[in-house]
């Protein structure tokens, strides 16, 4: 089957690498040639608003998916008129606007942090009064990895924050006293079959995912069931096909949904080595109509992102039961260049990996 991927980043790369052994071929569409996918498949370069370029792309595909959630909905719907597009464009529409997203999630009876929309500086000030200080202001669209958001610790900061976020529509979220950040990835096939990976615990640094621990430890049975129910309800309500990531806050033994991502997700990278079937393979299986693979963990896995620069790769690869994955991207501050997964690591091995990752660009 010829599978088209909208986007040419590392997630597209990992989807293709998972799909080639299943007999599929891949073509990418993006506005520029991506370093991560340049060597593993053809890329059609064009604007997401160019119907001619999109039509040429569709001609080369049996099905189309995407590797980032900011694909314009209009482009996805145009392509859907020519070839099957999974996940459904409705999932893009829901997830691209944070107010729409949280309103939709709440409409399903699923809890989220308290929030208020704010389209003016005055509305931002009013939202801070309603929600209380501290609170967090975020752009309604296009923010990721900590970008497009600011914490307000004092009402005197309203003007500064409004200007720093570009004087554009915002969502303001109340302070959440969470004990930890979790995520869960569910996959739904064309026939409605569902597999859901175990909960993962995540740690962020400067708004970017630094480390994921899979499965999350010390999770009560009731919390696991709550997470499964949330994932199942979202997958079914969206008539979803593919992998869906759900970011969660653990607040006093109950879960709040922070946001959803209608795609494979950074917090699921450990599934490549740590689970019987990776999130990438299961996404390809789902959209191509194949049976979903088992999501059972092979072992405990800790994934550490390589951000901005690369450590000594020989030292990292020399750690016990380590698996290094590079994305073929040149170093740049804040850029995800790869990750390392540690299988059943000792505390010493995990500490050594974190130390290596913080040391900087490989000099070899």
How would you sum up this structure, described in words?
It is a single chain. The chain has 364 residues and is of the alpha+beta class. It folds into 3 domains: 2-85, 3-Layer(aba) Sandwich (Rossmann fold), CATH 3.40.50; 114-174, 2-Layer Sandwich (Dna Ligase, domain 1), CATH 3.30.1490.20; 180-357, D-amino Acid Aminotransferase, Chain A, domain 1 (2-Layer Sandwich), CATH 3.30.470. It has 12 helices and 18 strands. Strands 10, 11, 12, 13, 14, 15, 16, 17 and 18 form a 9-stranded antiparallel beta sheet that branches. A 5-stranded parallel beta sheet has the order 3-2-1-4-5, sandwiched between helices. The chain has a 4-stranded antiparallel beta sheet with strand order 6-9-7-8, sandwiched between helices. Helix 3 (73-80) packs antiparallel against helix 4 (89-95). The model has no long low-confidence stretch (mean pLDDT 95).
Instruction: Give me the CATH architecture of the largest domain, please.
Output: 2-Layer Sandwich
Number of domains: 3
Structural class: alpha+beta
- What is the C-alpha radius of gyration, as a whole number of Å? 20 Å
Helical content, roughly? 25-40%
Number of strands: 18
**Number of distinct helices:** 12
From the 3D structure, determine the CATH topology of the largest domain: D-amino Acid Aminotransferase, Chain A, domain 1
CATH superfamily caption of the largest domain: ATP-grasp fold, B domain
Task: Give the low-confidence spans.
Answer: none
Average pLDDT for all residues: 95
- How is the main sheet built? 9 strands, antiparallel
Distance between the termini: 41 Å
From the spread of the alpha carbons, the general shape counts as: globular
Q: How would you spell out the order of helices and strands?
A: EHEEHEHEHHEHEEHEEEEEHEEHHEHEEH
């Amino acid at each position: 089957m010829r599978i088209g991927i909208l986007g040419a980043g590392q997630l597209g790369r990992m989807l293709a690498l998972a799909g080639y052994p299943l007999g599929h071929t891949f073509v990418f569409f993006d506005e520029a040639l991506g370093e991560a996918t340049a060597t593993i498949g053809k890329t059609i370069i064009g604007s997401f608003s160019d119907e001619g370029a999109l039509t040429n792309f569709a001609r080369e595909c049996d099905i189309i998916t995407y590797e980032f959630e900011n694909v314009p909905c209009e482009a996805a719907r145009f392509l859907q008129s020519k070839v099957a597009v999974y996940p459904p464009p409705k999932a893009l529409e829901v997830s691209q606007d944070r107010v729409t997203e949280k309103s939709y999630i709440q409409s399903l009876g699923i809890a989220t942090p308290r929030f208020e929309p704010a389209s003016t500086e005055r509305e931002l000030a009013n939202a801070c009064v309603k929600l209380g200080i501290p609170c967090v202001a975020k752009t309604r669209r296009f923010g990721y990895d900590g970008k497009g958001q600011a914490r307000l610790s004092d009402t005197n900061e309203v003007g500064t924050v409004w200007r720093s976020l570009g004087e554009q529509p915002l969502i303001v979220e109340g302070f959440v006293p969470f004990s930890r950040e979790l995520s869960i990835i569910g996959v739904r096939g064309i026939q409605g079959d569902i597999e859901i990976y175990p909960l993962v615990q995540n740690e962020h640094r400067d708004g970017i995912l630094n480390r994921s621990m899979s499965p999350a430890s010390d999770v009560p049975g009731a919390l696991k069931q709550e997470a499964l129910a949330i994932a199942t309800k979202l997958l079914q309500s969206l008539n979803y096909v593919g992998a869906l990531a759900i970011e969660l806050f653990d607040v006093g033994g109950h879960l709040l949904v922070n946001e959803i991502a209608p795609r494979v997700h950074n917090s699921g990278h450990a599934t490549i080595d740590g689970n019987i079937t990776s999130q990438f393979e299961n996404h390809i299986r789902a959209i191509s109509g194949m049976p979903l693979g088992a999501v059972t963990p092979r072992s405990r896995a800790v994934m550490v992102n390589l951000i901005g620069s690369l450590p000594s790769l020989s030292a990292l690869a020399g750690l016990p039961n380590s698996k290094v994955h590079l994305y073929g991207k040149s170093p740049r501050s804040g850029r995800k260049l790869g990750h390392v997964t540690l299988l059943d690591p000792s505390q010493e091995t995990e500490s050594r990996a974190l130390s290596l990752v913080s040391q900087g660009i490989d000099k070899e």
